[in-house]
Every structure is written in structure tokens, then in C-alpha cells.
């Protein structure tokens, strides 16, 4: 018998194909006769449609003694309409496989809908009912107010939330709406009733003050007809343009300690206010902030986490507060994290050292290149879903950015050099112009922090 050795066929090693160009989806802009603006983006294969509706109903318009009414109104939109009770409305959403969420923030109201493409017209009808004729039943408003009052103590007990509240209070003047909690205080929320919710709704929620963003696979869908029959039936008076006051903040270097006796960790948030995304320096600032504290390999983490073991992670960030093409906008530039109580002083000393060394020596080309590769390279993955695209387009609408803003941002990031990124991040975080909030045991951390000389130290109750 002859041994036969089978012939092995070696296939050539696969090679990478030609990279396909990617661009953020461009929307098509239109409108309805009732004044509602519409942005649509056809995304083949995305059979779950995402709809985002922005309504200009700013928190600054809330009555001073009823702050939080915009949040209660937003939550009440899905708690019954002129056609459905709260229970029936929820059942209809479930029947169509849809989700509906709403929240209020400084720029206004945002309502989000996701639904399978085959049920889009039905779900748009529910969305339209919620915006057109919410019931605002007294019993539902009372329940939502009670729920909100129950949430507030938990938020105050959360070190991260408490630190953010204290930072906003320190940064902004007392008369500014931004100085106070977005969702109201216990005192202001307790004053809210159905009449107050109805009054805020009637004063601000109308189609002429709204934009609907629709993203997904629109194959076979007569979107114009679906919109005309649903959101097109929403009526209301013309909307006057809100008067946006200039955002002002005091970034004099100082420290606020929110005392939590016995705390084993110190929650920290360091911040100041800077320009929003309309500023030409934004792409460079985004690169610089990523290098400073946007990843596990950033400068802050390399020192505070890897070298010293003070923390599980510290992050630098830029968060839009309110963005306007007329210049009445602002962004919070911040650094946040937590450290063990006993190393609070040394951790802050090293954090300031990182900032000063960055100002003196700048970023490296390797840091800049790595940031560009990540931020530009991850973009296609970040916008794989219709919801991600719709949310970003809605952000652009809310911030009065051009429709092609996101599409051009990545080219601007790739063109930004190391020197520009360094200048932007150093300008964002000047070591002598930062407000620091620490939530922790004041008895243990106050003196070590005072010794650092990073600003006057004030201790407040927790």
C-alpha cells in the first residue's frame, strides 16, 4: 500500500483593500406649512428610524420660583394626550416597538423617538400627539413632582453630582439660571403644579420653534405624507426668537470644598468657561484635550493613575452649555475624577504639575498624531446607528451650527498641527485660572490643599 501525502494548498495572505472615503451623512433640509423645520437623512440598511425634535424652550425662561418646570413638562409629554391616557399611550408605543424620551436642558426641549421603519407613520402620530395636545393631568403632574422630589436627595448624596452643582454655583453669577440645578431645587419643584406646566408649555412649545430630524432607511416611505399627517397637524402661534444673554463666569483661581466628614475618597471637578463650537479654535482644543485627559494613555492618567496610583482615572472634557451663532454661547472646560482622601493634596499637586509642564514644553508630535488617528479613525464607528446620526444633527440644530459642521470637522482635525493643539489646550486650562471643587472630608484635605497655593479655599456644607 502506497502512502499518499495530501497536497497542502497555501492561500495567499489577505491584503487590505483600498480605504473607502467616509463623510458624515449630509441632511436634506425642508419644512412644513406650520413652521416646523425638517432635516432628513436617508441611511440605507438602518431599518430602525430615529427622530429627534428640538424645541426652543430655554431653562432661562422658567419662572424663578418654579425652576424645574421644563423638566416636569418634558416628562409629562408621554403621560397622556387628548387621545390616550398615560397607560394607553405607553401601550401604543409598545405595540409599535417604539421608544419615546424627552428631556429639558438650557437650550430647550429635546424629544427622541426610535421605531422600526414599518411603523414610522404610527409612531409619528404618537409623537405628534405628545407635542400637539399633552393632557397634563393633575394626578400625573403630582406624581411626576413627587418622583422628582424623591430624586433630589439621591443627587445631593452623589459626590459627582454634588461636585458639578457646586462648580456651577461657583462659576456663574447668582442671578444666572446656569448657577442653579438644571432640574430645579426641592423648593422650586415643590411649587410646580399642572397649571404651571401648562403655562410653560403654551408659552414655548409650538411648531414654529421646533426642528424635526429624521434619520434611517426611508426606502418606500412617503416621509412628506407621514409628516404632513402627523407633525404637520400641530398648530401654534409664530415663535419669537428668544433673547439670549451673554454667558458670564468667574474663573478666578479658587477652591471650594464640599464637606463630607469621614469620606474615604475625594471627588474632584476643576473647570472654567470657554468658547463654544463656533470658535475656530475648537478642533485644536478637541485634540489638545484628548491628549491631556481623553484616554487611558493621556498625560493625566499616565501620571496620576499609572505612575502614582492615585486614581482609577481622571478625564479632561469640553461640554457645551449653550451654543449660539450670535456669540451668546459657552462651553464648560473641565477635569474630573476621584482620588483617595489621604492623597488629595499630592494628587492635585501632580495635576497642576502636568498642566504647567504642558504649558512649558507643549505636546509631542506623537501625541498629536495618536489623537488624530483615534478621533478621525473612530468616527465611522461612532455613527453606525441612525440614532447617533440623528442625535448629532439635532445637536447641530440646537447649537446653530451649519448642517455640514460634523462633515467638515474631521478634515479640520486632520489639518491641525501640534503647535495649534498645544496652544488651544493651554488656553483652555491655564494653571492660575481654574475653579476647583472637592467633595470630601474637609478636616483631612483642607490644609494640604491650602498649602498648594492654587487659590483661596472655602469650605461649605455637604
TrEMBL record:
InterPro entries: Metalloenz_LuxS/M16 (IPR011249), MPP/UQCRC_Complex (IPR050361), Pept_M16_N (IPR011765), Peptidase_M16_C (IPR007863)
Residue span of region Disordered: 1-23
UniProt-listed Pfam families: Peptidase_M16 (PF00675), Peptidase_M16_C (PF05193)
Residue stretches making up the Peptidase M16 N-terminal domain: 38-165
Gene3D superfamilies: Metalloenzyme, LuxS/M16 peptidase-like
Domain Peptidase M16 C-terminal: 192-373
Coiled coil: none
PANTHER family: METALLOPROTEASE (PTHR11851), PROCESSING PROTEASE (PTHR11851:SF224)
Name of the protein described by the UniProt record: Pitrilysin family protein
Organism: Streptomyces johnsoniae
Amino acid at each position: 500500500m502506497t502512502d499518499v501525502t495530501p497536497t497542502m494548498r497555501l492561500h495567499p495572505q489577505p491584503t487590505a483593500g483600498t480605504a473607502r472615503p467616509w463623510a458624515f451623512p449630509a441632511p436634506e433640509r425642508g419644512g412644513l406649512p406650520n413652521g416646523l423645520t425638517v432635516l432628513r437623512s436617508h441611511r440605507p440598511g438602518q431599518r430602525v428610524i430615529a427622530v429627534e425634535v428640538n424645541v426652543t424652550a430655554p431653562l432661562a425662561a422658567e419662572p424663578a420660583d418654579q425652576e424645574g418646570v421644563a423638566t416636569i413638562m418634558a416628562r409629562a409629554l408621554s403621560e397622556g394626550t387628548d387621545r390616550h391616557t398615560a397607560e394607553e399611550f405607553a401601550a401604543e408605543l409598545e405595540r409599535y416597538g417604539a421608544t419615546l424620551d424627552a428631556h429639558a436642558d438650557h437650550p430647550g426641549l429635546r424629544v427622541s423617538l426610535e421605531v422600526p421603519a414599518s411603523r414610522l407613520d404610527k409612531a409619528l402620530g404618537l409623537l405628534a400627539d405628545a407635542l400637539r395636545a399633552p393632557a397634563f393631568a393633575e394626578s400625573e403632574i403630582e406624581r411626576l413632582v413627587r418622583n422628582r422630589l424623591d430624586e433630589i436627595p439621591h443627587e445631593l448624596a452623589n459626590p459627582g453630582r454634588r461636585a458639578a452643582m457646586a462648580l456651577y454655583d461657583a462659576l456663574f453669577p447668582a442671578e444666572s439660571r446656569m448657577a442653579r440645578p438644571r432640574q430645579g431645587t426641592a423648593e422650586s419643584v415643590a411649587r410646580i403644579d399642572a397649571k404651571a406646566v401648562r403655562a410653560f408649555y403654551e408659552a414655548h412649545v409650538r411648531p414654529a420653534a421646533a426642528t424635526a430630524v429624521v434619520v434611517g432607511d426611508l426606502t418606500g416611505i412617503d416621509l412628506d405624507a407621514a409628516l404632513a399627517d402627523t407633525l404637520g397637524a400641530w398648530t401654534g402661534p409664530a415663535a419669537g426668537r428668544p433673547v439670549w444673554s451673554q454667558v458670564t463666569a468667574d474663573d478666578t483661581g479658587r477652591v471650594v470644598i464640599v464637606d463630607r466628614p469621614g469620606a474615604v475618597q475625594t471627588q474632584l471637578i476643576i473647570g472654567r468657561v470657554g468658547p463654544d463650537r463656533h470658535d475656530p479654535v475648537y478642533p485644536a482644543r478637541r485634540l489638545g484635550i484628548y491628549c491631556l485627559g481623553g484616554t487611558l494613555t493621556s498625560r493625566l492618567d499616565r501620571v496620576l493613575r499609572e505612575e502614582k496610583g492615585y486614581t482609577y482615572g481622571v478625564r479632561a472634557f469640553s461640554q457645551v452649555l449653550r451654543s449660539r451663532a450670535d456669540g451668546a454661547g459657552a462651553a464648560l472646560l473641565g477635569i474630573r475624577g476621584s482620588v483617595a482622601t489621604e492623597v488629595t493634596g499630592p494628587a492635585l499637586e501632580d495635576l497642576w504639575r502636568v498642566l504647567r509642564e504642558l504649558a512649558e514644553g507643549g505636546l509631542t508630535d506623537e501625541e498629536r498624531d495618536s489623537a488624530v488617528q483615534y478621533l478621525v479613525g473612530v468616527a465611522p464607528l461612532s455613527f453606525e446607528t441612525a440614532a447617533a446620526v440623528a442625535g448629532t444633527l439635532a445637536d447641530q440644530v440646537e447649537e446653530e451650527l451649519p448642517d455640514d459642521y460634523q462633515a467638515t470637522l474631521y478634515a479640520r482635525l486632520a489639518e491641525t498641527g501640534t503647535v495649534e493643539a498645544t496652544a488651544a489646550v493651554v488656553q483652555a486650562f491655564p494653571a492660575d485660572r481654574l475653579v476647583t471643587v472637592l467633595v470630601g472630608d474637609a478636616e483631612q484635605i483642607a490644609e494640604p490643599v491650602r498649602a498648594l497655593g492654587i487659590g483661596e479655599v472655602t469650605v461649605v456644607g455637604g
